[in-house]
Amino acid sequence: MPATKDRTGRNRAVPRPSRPSRPFTLWREVLTAYAAPALTAGTAGLVTGQRDLAVAACTSIAGTSAVVAYLVGTWLRRGGRPRGWTLTTPRGVLTGALVSTTVGAAALLGWFAAQWLPAHTPVPASLWLERLRVDLPVSAALATTIVTLRWRGTTAS
Q1: What confidence tier does 27 reach under pLDDT thresholds 50, 70, 90?
Q2: What's the 3-state SS for the chain?
Q3: Is 88 exposed, middle or buried (0-12, 13-18, 19+ CB in 10 A)?
């Protein structure tokens, strides 16, 4: 049988061109990782009158996010050639493993700063040191999740 042409064009599915995602650019991810928590937590601190939150927003919260975003992004890219298993591991599993690792490291660093420093150095115990126990792990979890998901979204498997 000869092929027939559909003159109305209604039954044909026209493939839509896929919109290319922006490439993973580390400096942009680090800048976003700093600016987003600084603006949101800083605004929350100002609106609620919590001066310590407004200060922590630009220091420990945003700083931790930027450092973690840089470290995780650099590790994932590994000189432009990602590790094979990071591309084949399911997105959720990879994100969970990296978040667990960074949160554990950040929690240890927060504990070290809050407990060990005042006990073994001339640094006095203060409220901002106690904030680090929460600020560091939460910032690390958010930055790691966003950078990992963003990286996997721009990397061809």
Answers
A1: very high
A2: CCCCCCCCCCCCCCCCCCCCCCCCCHHHHHHHHHHHHHHHHHHHHHHHCCHHHHHHHHHHHHHHHHHHHHHHHHHHHCCCCCCHHHHHCCHHHHHHHHHHHHHHHHHHHHHHHHHHHHHHCCCCCCHHHHHHHHHHHHHHHHHHHHHHHHHHHHCCC
A3: exposed
Computed over every residue of the chain, the mean pLDDT equals: 86
Question: What residues contact residue 46 under an 8 Å CB cut-off, 6+ apart?
Answer: 54
Residue 20 tokens read as 């290319």
CB 157 within 8 A of CB 89: no
d(CA 60, CA 66): 10
